[in-house]
Every structure is written in C-alpha cells, then in structure tokens.
Amino acid sequence: MKIPIYISCIILVVGCKSKDKLSVKDSLPQIKPTIIDKINTGTTLFKPYKLKDGFMVTDTGYADAVVMGGTYAVITLNGALVDTIDKGFGINKINDNMYFYQVVSSNGPLEDIQLKASGYKNTINATFGEYKILTNGKKQKFSDIAPDFNYYFSSPYIINNKIYYWQIKQVDSSGINEISAAEYDPSTKNTRSHFIQKDFIETDDNNYFPYPYIQNDTIYFDTGRGKQMKFSKDFNLLN
Question: Based on the structure, what is the number of domains in the chain?
Fold first, then answer.
C-alpha cells in the first residue's frame, strides 16, 4: 500500500506494511483515516466482515513479494467473488457504480521461516499486479485503457472522480523514459497529460513516484526529488 490522501473518493478497506510510501506521504497535508482496523490473523480468529456498498472481506493475510510486502484481502460483492486485492490500497470508489483496486496474485505459500517472520496465520508468495476498474460487476485492466500506465511505478490515485497517475513512456533502447502527469476521465474515457521530465528510473523501489494529491483546489505531482508540478482542477498547468 502507498498511503494516499483523503479526497472525494471513498476507500472501503485499508491496511499496512512495507509496500507503503510512508516517507513521502508523511509530508502531505491530509492522510486518509483508517476505516477498518488492521486484523492480525496470527493472533485473531478471522471472521468475514462487511464493507460499504455490498462489498465483503472473506479472507485476509500477509503477502510477500520479495522487494515489498503488504496485506491482501479476498473481496466479494453481493456474494460473488471480485478479486484478491491489495488491502492497503483498498477498494476506491470513483462514482456510484465504478470502483478501483490493485490485484494481488498468489504464487504459492511462504516457507516456514518466512511464515513465522510475517506474524500472520495466512501468508502467500505474492505479486502486486494490475490495477482494475470494476463497473457494474465487470472488470477491466487500467493498463488497457490508460496510455503509458505502469502498474509498478505509476502510483494512480482518484481525485474528483478522475484517476491521476504518472505516465511512463520508454523512448529509446537506452532505457530513458519520458515522465508525464496524466489524468484519465472514466466518464469520457479520455486521457490528458503534461510532460514533466526524462528519467532512467534506475531502481526497483515502487515508492519512486509519490501519489498525486490535491490541496486547496490545486493538484500536485511531486517527484520527491526537487520538482513539483501544480495543476488546476481542470488539469491546466499552473507552474
């Protein structure tokens, strides 16, 4: 999970662990409140619990992805399986019938030594993978509709019923990327972007690009490395 700012969207399930972008988000003006307390399945008998809008958590545990870790949750909607998701990122509401989440895939159980270290009863070797949009029960990969979206680095977040993310476009064989601030509007299915910089991204740290956020009607894309871009609510560049 990368702890985002509380804006107009609703997060239905939240969690924790080392996948969080804590060092970056601690500096932001508003942090999402915890709606559901963390459940440590190593010491607590897990019971399924209800969320808003008909969603339910039927199972949860620790997900180890080697370079990152977090908690997963198995989510159903009105009794039907939705997905196994990153519990930290949660189910984020875009509008009345549209939701946004990140998929967690299991690659098998952890070894005993890893299991003991996690502190959780339920644990998996995991991949934190694609982000999906759920619309009236139908799922779609965000990378299929959002140009130059990278599920590992793009740090998507919902602001005013739109999805903002870092566009990452490889431009040549040297590995250099063009980095842009992007806005995807689900109502029109259009994406707009503003170029920010070129970057090699020589890291496997998914904390590299912080979440976009809004403060006093200004949308911020902050690289965390001395460059901050400001946009109006209409996504016009302000600096």
Answer: 1
